[in-house]
Amino acid sequence: MTVVSPAVAADPAVRRRRRAGAAGSSTGWAFLAPFMIVFLLVFIAPIIYAIYLSLFRDQLIGGSVFVGLDNYLVAAQDGNFWAGLTRVSLFLAVQVPIMLFLSLLAALALDSGRLYGSSFFRLSIFLPYAVPAVVATLMWGFMYGTRFGLVGNINDSLGVNLPDPLSPDLILASIANIVTWEFVGYNMIIFYAALRVISPSLYEAAAIDGASQLRVIAHIKLPAIRGAMVVAAIFSIIGSFQLFNEPSILQTLAPNAITSSFTPNLYAYSLSFSGGQYNYAAAVAIIMGVITMIIAYAVQLRGIRKDGQS
Amino acid sequence: MSGGLITLRSTRRPKTPPSVLRPAKSRLLTVLIGLMVVYSVVPLIWLVINATKSQQSLLSSFGLWFADDFSLVDNVVETLTYDDGIFLRWLSNTMLYVIAGAGGATILAVLGGYALAKFDFVGKPAVFAVVIGAVAVPGTALAVPTFLMFSEMGLTNTPWAVIIPTLISPFGLYLMWIFCADSIPRDLMEAARIDGANELRLFLQVCLPLLKPGIVTVALFNMVATWNNYFLPLIMLRNENLYPLTLGLTAWNRQASTIGGEAIFHLVITGALLTIIPLIVVFLLLQRYWQSGLSLGSTKE
């Protein structure tokens, strides 16, 4: 922690230059360069390559042929792609609000100081985040089982007939439950961290004005963590459109309910790795990327605009 | 103005009246959030209980209670030795990917976040726009082109194919950026510069110690992401000996549905339990660091 030994004291010329340039451009770039070099390799180059790939088609005769936007036109009329997109949109519209609402509720409850044993609660709810999606899905998949699983156990011992969570009708809800289980605690911690840094003086002022708990939440807490909520919403939207792990692992348990085009990502994966249709898969991936960016951007704009009003 | 506060803090009355600052504990709220705890913990309890069962009693006994036989030790031994101990191989692969990938990602994020927070340089707004834009691109959308690129470079089916993409964590960069902006006073940097410290020394000896909670937080989140990674190794790796734990477990699970494959659900469950224990332990041990790191990281929101 101690600062610098006098032995290194530079000559006045250097000192003056440093102060004037406020540690110039080159130093900043030197620190950023390692990140940017790898970033170019694993983010920018694949994006450019994907765009390039999406403009070609592999023909049996003649090899790779430039087809312009043809792959995109095919995707626009592809029932499998649309069904998957509709499915993840429905998932997004239902699961994300429920999950974020539960996270917010838990964070506000923890922050309110009205809970007995709050640190135990905080850690237990956060715990599932440390569980890999693979393990979470395997676990829930076993529990969902109507024959040997927990659902089957309950049916047997209570003499009831619970609906099969792995049936085509319920599979999307079952996946939504797994994803909610995984991320409620994570979002709760993000919100909670943002709530902790609100200045106590605001609460004191509210107390003097005689504000109720609900008013404090509505007028101090929620506006203060709007940024965190926007970030959480954007990450959840990206996650929904990327849905892959959970359906892909449940596929072995519910082969009839989960097709290879269940989500756009699963579709792109099976197009390339079982079908060898890399060019079309690249087009599907890019369409999904663009849709995600547009929605994430819209959410961000909306968050910022509200910020401006308050 | 402070009169009300003083009476609240006084110890004369054992029961302080409810207020915004010192609210009364609420049983109802505790029960409500308790339900969420039950929801969060029940599957984990299920996992622990069922790791104690043999393959047979797994199918015949009630899921949320122990079976007559207690086979936890047998299961652990069998998990670690099955198929010539491939589980241990997967564990060491996972650790390699975590140390090289998540460790590297943390170093890059700290350096980059420091640069973005503390220096004004040409092209900084562009960097900001590109990095934030890239976050919105689904990682899985990049997977296919990354696979094809890596396959042309001869990197697929090697550990590099998993480690190199893991090195970039835009979320880590963002968190570190905010953290550096908050926790390193510019005056301190100026003072060190006037004393003649060069930039590297300034970073290593003055700034780095201040960043400790942020670094622990970013390292931990990178570690979780790498430990839990499934999609990337799934597309990049063909050789079972290079699998991380997540991929190995799903391979074991699929084995039951392949023709002639032996059902080893008890090993899947015990293996799953062994997979989550290290992360949970790390989170519990370091909770003070990462929680304060997150709080500081969110001040600019």
TrEMBL record, chain A:
Where's it found, cell-wise? Cell membrane
Q: Taxonomically, which superkingdom?
A: Bacteria
What Pfam families does this protein map onto? BPD_transp_1
Record carries keyword Cell membrane: yes
The record places domain ABC transmembrane type-1 at 85-299
What residue range is the signal peptide?
Answer: none
InterPro entries, per database record: MetI-like, MetI-like_sf, UgpAE/MalFG_permease
How the protein sits in the membrane?
A: Multi-pass membrane protein
Under the heading Gene3D superfamilies, the entry gives: MetI-like (1.10.3720.10)
- Name the major location: membrane
Q: What is this protein called?
A: Multiple sugar transport system permease protein
User: Can you name the source organism?
Assistant: Nesterenkonia lutea
Automatic annotation (TrEMBL), chain B:
Read off the Gene3D superfamilies from this record: MetI-like
Membrane topology reported for the UniProt record? Multi-pass membrane protein
Secreted as UniProt keyword = no
Its localization reads:
Cell membrane
Recite the UniProt keywords alphabetically: Cell membrane, Membrane, Sugar transport, Transmembrane, Transmembrane helix, Transport
Q: Name one Pfam family in it.
A: BPD_transp_1
Transcription recorded as keyword: no
Q: What InterPro entries does the annotation carry?
A: MetI-like (IPR000515), MetI-like_sf (IPR035906)
- The primary site where this protein sits is membrane
Which segments constitute the ABC transmembrane type-1 domain? 91-286
Q: What superkingdom heads the lineage?
A: Bacteria
- Bilayer-crossing residues are 28-49, 95-117, 126-148, 160-181, 202-227, 263-286
Q: Which PANTHER family match?
A: ABC TRANSPORTER PERMEASE PROTEIN MG189-RELATED, ABC TRANSPORTER PERMEASE PROTEIN MG189-RELATED-RELATED
Q: Which family does it belong to?
A: Belongs to the binding-protein-dependent transport system permease family.
Q: What name does UniProt use for this protein?
A: Multiple sugar transport system permease protein
